[in-house]
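Quick question: what would this complex look like in 3D?
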Amino acid sequence: MFYLLSGTILTFSVLTITSRRMLRAAVYLLFVLVATSGLYFLLNYQFLAAIQLTLYAGGIVVLIIFSILLTGHISEKFKNPAPWKLWMGASVFIVGSAVALWALLSNELVRDTGVEEVQIDMHLIGNQLMGTGKNGFVLPFEIISILLLASMVAAIVIAKKENN
Amino acid sequence: MIQGISIHHFLIVSTLMFFIGITGFIIRQNLITILLSVELILNSVVINFLVFNRYLYPDQLQGHFFSLFIIGVAAAEASVAIALIINIYRRIHNIEADNVDRMKF
């Protein structure tokens, strides 16, 4: 199951950046996000997988598809990128992933032994998200609420038509 | 943690996904496709956080909450970016990154 999901993720990520039609690229990104939420289910993070499905796959991709339909024609094809850009992208991919994979595989990642695996239920998530003590995340929670409000106002102000 | 699959497998997948996103960021000129690449990059980072949390520190939930916040920030970023793209399209009827070279009005 893991290999199926990761194969899906890698295949469709490559298709996302190589596809020459924008709408297809967005749909391939949708497949990537759904497969990623499958990985979260495998890792036993059901809550986050549900968030991923609703917010990413449901919200962001729909937003992107709307904006594609607002800003272009569906049948429009991209030009092929300039050759130097292709070479630069390929070399960045090869060099970067080689360095990162070398660092990753030469590192023995040892597990903390002797600790209980925590059971994630909604009570625990809620208590920690709103907690102020140890393992409490109330400050980032409040900050992200301000960020979401600010970005909502900014998006409305930027995208609205100016009346002459 | 999953029996039979080591942490390195997950990390290899997310590394490749990260660099695929960076490559897309470089080779594409359309602003929306660049946004798609950014989403790929953010998603691979979220996988990394969750895998480290589950495999190395299974008694805590820090990575889980960081992933939650990353997803929230990605939503905010996508909405503002799409508003900007729509505004640019209204002004110059084109959303190629090469044509957006005047950042003033």
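Answer marked as accepted. Helices of chain A lie at 2-18, 22-42, 46-71, 83-105, 122-129, 138-159.
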